[in-house]
Design a protein that fits this description.
By secondary structure, this protein is α+β, with helices and mostly antiparallel strands. It has 26 helices and 31 strands. The protein is globular, with a radius of gyration of 28 Å. Bound molecules: O-methyl-L-tyrosine (0A1) and zinc ion (ZN). Pfam families: DUF3458, DUF3458_C, Peptidase_M1, Peptidase_M1_N.
């Protein structure tokens, strides 16, 4: 089913884009479903430019062609050719109807792309995944997003084995056939690209809810899952309803079919998929119950349910012209989800979480061999471009534009975008054009952000002139070269800022030569040159600037703050995000000092400010938990020229030790006890916040008094009323190598043996063991009967957690970690190229490792790259890595 590479895979370039010579206006598909063999009959109503028809060439991969007819006549073999994944047909004209019948083998499809089986032959169900280019694994088609067609789909199958038959669109009849078979038909009135096609067939249970849109149209929401999981779908249903209501209110967008189906599967390559009218979810992002899901997972379910639903407009009603425009739907939809989640929960916490993710996942991507623009200029395998850059940085670009237009202006612009491009396949130019036109503004300058890879560094220098009572802020930007882009240009960087007086109060801003907004306490400066200076007048004392408030642009800020300045912001900045940010900067400085072995004013200031905040009961518990968390190891590694992950790990531990000592063992214990007394099953913000802080306090205590912390963790594990508390305690025991860890792990293994999502956590928690011992553990775990390379969640729970989230445990100086990963990637690649390629990106950053690890990583990656028969997916990643 998959594409094995030749020596140099072909590159697809944005600059080569051509509108399709042929279009398909209507598609009629009939599926005769079976696990080992499914027959797909397709009738395509074709259209082409009558002035000069090019040969009709359709995509098709791994299909066995059984029958082919053109305009009702069987086609002789001389009139068609099927080779190199293309079916070429002679004699087609504008208005022709091409009918093909093909056979595919779902049970053999381990790549989980196209039509495949989820679960066992006996009880599993059939489903499809078509984005980006999976439809060509199902039938012959112009499998590109700018070919939009109306779909009528008929499913036929054994009633006993496949009682539920679903496809996208509205139901259009069902009935019985001979031999115990039955059929169901679906008609989708909205023309769509093939990547949004989906079907599901099998034994599934449902929960249903009636929904009435804002304009009064009734419809049905249905969530489907296997029998043992259906009782865990209620939270997702509530989240879906909240998301639908929110999109009506925030963007005036209603759902547009009579029924909205959502299905959960344990076998899925990504998070979820927005197929029109039939969203399919990785069970990890749909099922939630207190006994097996953590608070973070509840929030993730809400976010992903909303993300997929929002795609109905940003992605489906208006889709992408080509895959280079992927961020048009993804960046925009991530942004819409971030707004929604901020409205449903705490805006500051949401912003902290998203920026932390951007720094952990996207900044390293932008700084390494896989760096690419939000709109890439070329690719070999499009599935490798579902990246943090396209999603997360893409969302930051939308956020900057939204900030420029203001709340009402952005809404006006989005209304214009949706109405102008409804039913079309659009580009990023179309998007910025519609937003700009609705506001009489030219947003063209922002296109440069879409074309340029790399994270800009913004340097800020402030100078106070007491005699003139002026404060001059000089901002300069620089972006380092990235692969294929040696020269970078200056980008428009919106810098939201405020100035604080020495007592921690915001001062009115009077920007020289600019009367607008005079006296406001916050404003946005746009830096669009290499260097610019801004003068503020009537400033009574040397101020402390709070820059990039709310993270107003995806850049790395460097500012010559004194530790006391950052401590002032950490205590007083009313912008919750910037308050956290000041703490992060202070901790990063303290880290630098510890590394150099210097005594540290930054460390003192950080510990001092945080221990004061620790005693301040007015600080929100969840924010406090985040404030008490220093930047992660991946982020801290970005500060090193030559990375030794073990040193980074040890230094970060020291940092936490200093903090814990400063707060004090007794204070930590008292706080823990007070928080533990509140144990509740509730999901409200206050309960979640208490659990989050409780875990952080326990982790800090474990740094200075492991014996006491392990005792408390064991109690917490034994009495935990929910997964958040249970897993938090287990993590403290396992990572602290506590004697009690063994029994707790055995208990967890036994208790959750039948719960795949909980078992994933059992694998992950052990994959995060620090130091050399983890390698042995990973080897043990992969021989556990519950481990399989065939399930993406399981692979990621063990190998993903280890190679991505445990730098100290993965980057062993003898290269044993690299060899083990490379070996598994090779095996995995033969089963599922999408998953192997994504896991291989864990090698990102290897070029900046210290010499011993650097050499070991290079030889492991090179050996993998030299292996014959790798997929196009994995080849592209390892080759880019080595360039
Ligand atoms: N469009 C989905 C992501 C997705 C992409 C590819 C997939 O299969 C290879 C599956 C899902 C989203 O953004 O949610
Ligand atoms: Zn998406």
């Amino acid at each position: 089913m998959t594409n094995r590479s030749d020596a140099s895979p072909t590159l697809i370039r944005l600059s080569d884009y051509q509108a399709p010579a042929w279009r398909v206006s209507r598609v009629e598909l009939t599926f005769d479903l079976g696990i080992d063999a499914t027959e797909v009959t397709s009738r395509l109503q074709l259209a082409c430019d009558p002035t000069g028809p090019a040969p009709l060439r359709l995509d098709g991969e791994g299909l066995t062609l059984l029958d082919i007819q053109l305009d009702g006549q069987p086609l002789p073999e001389s009139a068609w050719r099927y080779q190199d994944n293309v079916l070429e047909v002679d004699g087609a004209r504008d208005g022709s109807v091409l009918e093909t019948r093909v056979r595919v083998t779902p049970a053999a499809n381990t790549a989980l792309e196209g039509l495949y089986l989820s679960g066992s032959r006996e009880t599993g169900f059939l489903l499809t995944q078509c984005e980006a280019e999976g439809f060509r694994h199902i039938t012959f088609f112009l499998d590109r997003p700018d070919v939009l067609a109306s779909y009528t789909v008929t499913l036929r199958a054994d009633r006993e084995r496949f009682p539920v038959l679903l496809a996208g669109g509205n139901p259009d009849g069902h009935g019985e056939l001979d031999d115990g078979r039955h059929w169901a038909r679906f008609v989708d009135p909205h023309p769509k690209p093939s990547y949004l096609f989906a079907l599901v067939a099998g034994r599934l249970q449902k929960i249903e809810r009636d929904y009435v849109t804002g304009s009064g149209r009734p419809l049905q929401l249905v969530i489907w899952a296997e029998a043992d999981a259906i009782r865990h779908c209620g939270y997702a249903m509530d989240a879906l309803e909240r998301a639908m209501r929110w999109d009506e209110q925030a963007y005036g967008r209603e759902y547009d079919l009579d029924v909205f189906h959502v299905v959960a599967t344990h076998d899925f390559n990504m998070g979820a998929m927005e197929n029109k009218g039939l969203n399919i979810f990785n069970a990890k992002y749909l099922l939630a119950d207190p006994d097996s899901s953590t608070d973070e997972e509840y929030r993730a379910v809400e976010a992903v349910v909303a993300h997929e639903y929002f795609h109905n407009w940003s992605g489906n009603r208006v889709t992408c012209r080509d895959w280079f425009q992927l961020s048009l739907k993804e960046g925009l939809t991530v942004f819409r989800e971030q707004q929604f989640s901020a409205d449903m929960n705490s805006p500051a916490l949401k912003r902290i979480e998203d920026v932390a993710l951007l720094r952990r996942a996207q900044f390293p991507e932008d700084a390494g061999p896989l760096a690419h623009p939000v709109r890439p200029a070329q690719y070999s395998e499009i599935n490798n471009f579902y990246t943090a850059t396209v999603y997360e940085k893409g969302s930051e670009l939308v956020r900057m534009v939204a900030g420029r237009l203001g709340r009402d202006g952005f809404r006006r612009g989005m209304d214009q975008y949706f109405s102008r491009h409804d039913g079309q396949a659009a580009t990023l130019e179309d998007f910025l054009g519609a937003l700009g036109d609705a506001n009489g503004i030219d947003l063209g300058a922002y296109l440069a952000w879409y074309a340029q890879a790399g994270t800009p560094r913004l340097t800020a220098r402030g100078r106070y002139d007491a005699a003139h009572r002026t404060y001059t802020l000089t901002l300069s930007q620089h972006t380092a070269p990235t692969p294929g882009q040696p020269h970078k240009r200056a980008l428009p960087i919106p810098v939201k800022l405020a100035l604080f007086d020495p007592r921690g109060r915001m001062v009115p801003l009077h920007l020289a030569g600019n009367g607008a907004d005079a006296g406001a306490s916050e404003r946005v400066l746009v830096v669009d040159k290499a260097e610019q200076s801004f003068v503020f007048e009537q400033v009574e004392a040397a101020p402390v600037p709070s820059l990039l408030r709310g993270f107003s642009a995806p850049v790395i800020l460097e500012c010559d703050y004194a530790p006391a300045d950052l401590a002032l912001l950490l205590r007083h900045d009313p912008d919750g995000f910037n308050r956290w940010e000041a703490g992060q900067q202070l901790a990063a400085r303290a880290y630098d000092n510890l590394r150099e072995g210097n005594s540290s004013a930054a460390l003192d200031a950080w510990c001092e400010a945080l221990s004061a905040l620790f005693g301040d009961t007015s600080v929100d518990a969840a924010l406090l938990a985040d404030l008490l968390t220093p930047p992660g190891e991946i982020e801290l590694s970005e500060r090193e020229r030559q990375v030794n992950p073990s040193h980074v790990h040890a230094l970060r531990q020291q940092l936490q030790e200093h903090l814990a000592l400063r707060i004090g063992r007794e204070t930590l214990e008292q706080r823990y006890t007070a928080l533990a007394a509140h144990t509740s099953l509730e999901l409200d913000a206050a309960s979640q916040a208490r659990r989050r802080l409780k875990r952080r306090v326990l982790e800090l205590l474990a740094r200075i008094d492991p014996w006491a912390a392990h005792g408390l963790a064991t109690l917490q594990y034994d009495n935990a009323p929910n997964m958040t508390d249970r897993l938090g305690a287990l993590a403290v025991l396992v990572r602290g190598d506590a004697p009690q860890a063994h029994a707790a792990l055995a208990h967890f293994r036994e208790r959750y043996a039948d719960n795949p999502l909980a078992m994933d956590k059992w694998f992950s928690v052990q994959a995060l063991l620090p130091g050399a011992v983890v390698l042995e553990r990973v080897r043990q775990l992969e021989s556990d009967p519950a481990f399989t390379l065939k399930n993406p969640n399981r692979v990621n729970s063990l190998f993903g957690a280890w190679a991505r989230s445990n730098p100290d445990g993965f980057h062993r100086p003898d290269g044993s970690g690299y060899q083990l990963l490379a070996e598994r990637l090779r095996q995995l690649d033969a089963l599922n190229p999408q998953v192997s390629a994504r896991l291989a990106t864990a090698f990102n950053g290897w070029q900046r490792l210290e010499p011993t690890r650097h050499a070991a990583a290079r030889s492991a990656i090179a050996a993998l790259a030299a292996h014959p028969g790798l997929s196009r997916n994995l080849t592209e990643i390892v080759q880019s890595m080595l360039q």
